[in-house]
Amino acid sequence: MQQIIIHVDMDAFYASVEMRDDPRLRGKPLIIGSLPNERGVVATCSYEARKYGIRSAMNIKEAYRRCPHGIYMHPNFYKYKAVSEQLHRIWNTYASASQTIALDEAYLDVTDTAKNWETARQFAHTIKQRTKDELGLNCSVGVAYSKTAAKTASEEKKPNGYFEIPTPEAFVDLIIDRDVRVLYTVGAKTAKKLHAAGIHTVRDIRENTDEVIRLCGKHGQWITQIAFGIDDRKVTPYRPEDAKSIGREVTFQKDVSDYAVLRDILVLLAFCVEHRAKRVGLQGRGVTLKLTYADMKQISRSHTIPQTDSAVTIFCETAGMLEQVEQRPVRLIGAGLYNLTGEEEERQLTFDDIIDDGIIVDEDVRGQLLADLQQRYGLDFAANLEKIYHYEILHKTVEYMRKYNLHRRENGGGER
């Protein structure tokens, strides 16, 4: 039996939630992300804002240049996550398998639950109606024979759209003369490479398969398959253990030159990474440090470790790597775990383990790290750790630490 897959995608999700909750925002160019006087990018924006050329991931300064009269707001991730859980509960009712792509997007396998195209069509319209009636939000829905076609279908009539692509032939007929970027697996860099070789449309891909594969390798093989409408992938429910890495990073509103402050911030990042790892039951065998300097040069460092999810280990490893990098002003810092596994291997501790500060898992050490931060910055980090795990509070705390240290230095405190 041919697969029947529904792809559901919310329309300007964050902005739509805010407009639902505050009718005064409706019909206005609403930009969710950083504020114009901050560093950062656009997370999403209303369709009214998109008329000015504003899009997700655009630098917030450029967005403000294009639309200075827009309404700019920080995202409220607590709210969006709660709404997302409500959305997925509605959608999952109709599927035998659901693959969550983001807070506002999912693939639904309705092959066995619908059994035929007509019922799948009814499911799709019911999903749209329930999403509107129960949550006051619009979504775009595509029904198709494959995941690629379903995603293409949901994009076809946005916003608040519905479209069907029942066969590979229908998929090819729809996209054959469109730019290669219509294939969602073709990003900007790949498209540039294909365009340079004279391959501009899906038809060009089909007529130059060998050249596409030569240019793009294994990825090129996948691109050529999609160009012919071939996609047999199954809807696979997301499992935490499928994640390749877990990390947390922060961007400063002004560059940080004091590496003692960066070291302090690594403490908070380490606790955030530990929290996320424990929440999904994962441990890592490697730790990463990520930096973006003021000139936008990015570097990363990594170190293999015995399996852990300990904040102490993550901090000690990243702090050690921080000491080895070139010390110049930093715009962004991040910490993470990689080479993840869901099962903790049992092994006997060696003498080296016991004396190696990098892997001590000790409540006294954890407490001391937070106590040291409290002494330096005057905040009760231990009591507020649960709040700091949240994105917005973490960023506010880090900005407080940066400004506090700068004020201390300007008033004669010097660098630590």
List keywords for this structure.
416 residues, alpha+beta, Alpha-Beta Plaits, MutS, DNA mismatch repair protein, domain I, Dna Ligase, domain 1, 3 domains, four-stranded antiparallel beta sheet, 12 strands
Q: How far from one another are the termini? A: 68 Å
How would you characterize the largest beta sheet?
5 strands, mixed
- Per CATH, the class of the largest domain reads Alpha Beta
What's the CATH architecture name of the largest domain? 2-Layer Sandwich
For the largest beta sheet, what order do the strands appear in spatially?
5-6-1-7-8
**Which structural class do the helices and strands define?**
alpha+beta
Order of helices and strands: EHEEHHEHEEHHEHEHHHHEHEEHEHHHH
If you consult CATH, what is the topology of the largest domain?
A: Dna Ligase, domain 1
The CATH superfamily of the largest domain appears as DNA polymerase, Y-family, little finger domain
Strand content: 15-25%
Write down how many β-strands occur, each being a DSSP E stretch of 2 or more residues: 12
Mean pLDDT: 90
